[in-house]
């Protein structure tokens, strides 16, 4: 008799056992697949509408091969796939929905362990959140980044190049024909964005947490070694089931602290803050937004990748990959925490971690930037905090006071930003409201508002921008994000008026609206919330229950873990 949970389905000699096995046999599975061996779910976020994950069927075959080799029974299943580029109004709106899909698909099926096949930004946190709420042995296989973009002799990075080319198109420095040519040159292989955008950040996050095999994060999607490590992951998950190495044994407080420090060292996306907080909430770890500042802001930047630096993920892999970063900052990390290998980080990198290209990976003693992690700012404009990524910002703007130019929502921004009569100069602070979790809804990546055309024409490349939204991990600039509480629920951001002065002081971790408390109270009395954007369906449930950015923007009732027991076990 099998000791695994799948035996509740396949291990009985009665009507129900017949039912569970017989229908599976229509796929041609022989009798011995039901002999009590571990059943491994392969949770696949493949979709042709998620181009970054479109190769995951191929990767899945390698995982299956590994599972079979180790004596397991692989069963692949699809879940909602969140493609960053196509899905409207924003993939983030559906991260929590996809997490519910993953959670219930894992719990409700005869699965003993699960491999999460992910890639594009939200496909990683959504599946990890769902799996964490079930707490089975779990391992992540990231699809890997695209090969470097190549355009007219230059390496160009996903997203990062687009933001730059878009500005050049606006100012006439680039023709439309050149712009169109770059489109094909940027994305030239399977895989996710190859800058240190959110997908790469998530790949680094899972390896930092100990949730993937060591060295996986940077392997390009089309490199044969990606399939090799996928196959090894398939073998390993079978052993994890036998060892009962559940996700809760790996996702400890120390693992989250490691992830925060490593994220700082690689210049990871600001989206990391929201996703890591949400994952921590699922396993009962109380990660506070201040933890990101306390643990990360003093960490040095070692990795020279766009958008903070020059190179791309392919270069990162050839330069030594994440083990090289971990080795450099090991004195700052909890190196003895257990990972999916059953071993510690220290053991995992015992025979790796060499830097092969010191232009790409810097050392802890001589970093690219001495203090570069995400900084948390507070003040009357963000009582519960907001974030800035100093490594992607302009040093001269890190201490700045400027006049607010307010856009009430994204439509207002688009309608007026390029109006030659807009009263704005480069010393102003651009303020965008109603792009938070509730207000938009879904907290889109619009915080890095492109600058007004008339300022681009003057050669201005950066300004202070502030919003309750997010920005793409591939983006850059002096951009203050995730303001909490958000404007749509009555946060002070919603009370900012044109002409108010705003002070940013990153060294003092301050974001302050230079308006008296009395004046703010007077404005609050006449303030009106923007109309709700949905009256039914998932979006209504999302608006009613989503938490603020500093809490990870998970739905209130999804926080926590219900375990793997199904609610009713008989028909
Ligand atoms: Fe999918 Fe960037 S759009 S990873």
UniProtKB/TrEMBL annotation:
<dbReference type="Pfam" id="PF24877">
    <property type="entry name" value="ILV_EDD_C"/>
</dbReference>
<keyword id="KW-0408">Iron</keyword>
<protein>
    <submittedName>
        <fullName>IlvD/Edd family dehydratase</fullName>
        <ecNumber>4.2.1.-</ecNumber>
    </submittedName>
</protein>
<dbReference type="InterPro" id="IPR037237">
    <property type="entry name" value="IlvD/EDD_N"/>
</dbReference>
<feature type="domain" description="Dihydroxy-acid/6-phosphogluconate dehydratase N-terminal">
    <location>
        <begin position="37"/>
        <end position="348"/>
    </location>
</feature>
<dbReference type="InterPro" id="IPR000581">
    <property type="entry name" value="ILV_EDD_N"/>
</dbReference>
<dbReference type="InterPro" id="IPR056740">
    <property type="entry name" value="ILV_EDD_C"/>
</dbReference>
<keyword id="KW-0479">Metal-binding</keyword>
<dbReference type="GO" id="GO:0016829">
    <property type="term" value="F:lyase activity"/>
</dbReference>
<dbReference type="InterPro" id="IPR042096">
    <property type="entry name" value="Dihydro-acid_dehy_C"/>
</dbReference>
<comment type="similarity">
    <text>Belongs to the IlvD/Edd family.</text>
</comment>
<dbReference type="Pfam" id="PF00920">
    <property type="entry name" value="ILVD_EDD_N"/>
</dbReference>
<keyword id="KW-0456">Lyase</keyword>
<keyword id="KW-0411">Iron-sulfur</keyword>
<dbReference type="InterPro" id="IPR052352">
    <property type="entry name" value="Sugar_Degrad_Dehydratases"/>
</dbReference>
<feature type="domain" description="Dihydroxy-acid/6-phosphogluconate dehydratase C-terminal">
    <location>
        <begin position="359"/>
        <end position="553"/>
    </location>
</feature>
